[in-house]
Design a protein that fits this description.
Blueprint: H1 6-20, H2 26-49, E1 62-65, H3 67-74, E2 82-85, H4 89-94, E3 100-106, E4 109-116, E5 119-120, E6 123-125, H5 130-138, E7 148-150, E8 156-157, H6 162-167
Parallel strand pairs: 2-6
Antiparallel strand pairs: 1-2, 1-7, 3-4, 4-5, 4-6, 7-8
Length: about 170
């Protein structure tokens, strides 16, 4: 099972403090908090990637999506860390890393709300096919929010041209 080490927990404490201050912790606090949040997301991604999805017999995947990808590409700070995974809601709820993990349906989609040390991540569960990810992204409000970055490979999925719009300063 997946457990947090003492280092992971200290990174989460930094992350939680940062988000509680709502971007008022200064540049260094921001960098440390982001490092903590991304380190935990990476650890979760590595764990689930080692477990094959029963529908495809391929590893489960985890993407950072929307505003966090946009802000990362623009070199801006972001406290918007939303995720998409190919894990089933039941599997996600079973991970011991979460203090709690509520499940809900919003707009016909499975949305999970896992919490670690008081920090909540909105996580959409999708079918383990590339088209399911693209469909999710294409439903977003603007092209710059319709991108995903695979946490393991760093591959960016950009079906609507968000990177081009960022480069051309359309958003």
């Amino acid at each position: 099972d997946l457990y947090l080490t003492g280092y992971d927990k200290s990174m989460w404490d930094l992350c939680r403090g940062y988000y509680e201050k709502n971007l008022n912790g200064g540049e260094e606090a921001h960098k440390e908090a982001d490092a903590g949040a991304y380190a935990i997301v990476k650890k979760i991604a590595e764990y689930i990637h080692n477990i094959k999805n029963p529908m495809t017999d391929k590893p489960n995947e985890l993407w950072i999506v929307g505003g966090a990808v946009r802000d990362e590409l623009m070199g801006k700070k972001s406290n918007d860390l939303d995720l998409i995974t190919t894990c089933s809601p039941k599997f996600l709820q079973s991970l011991s890393i979460f203090d709690e993990c509520e499940s809900m349906v919003r707009g016909g989609k499975n949305v999970m709300l896992p919490v670690v040390n008081g920090v909540q991540f909105e996580t959409n569960c999708i079918k383990p096919y590339q088209q399911a990810l693209i469909n999710n992204l294409e439903e977003r409000d603007i092209t710059a929010n319709a991108m995903a970055r695979n946490v393991i490979t760093n591959e960016i999925v950009d079906p609507t041209g968000g990177q081009k719009d960022i480069k051309n300063k359309i958003c």
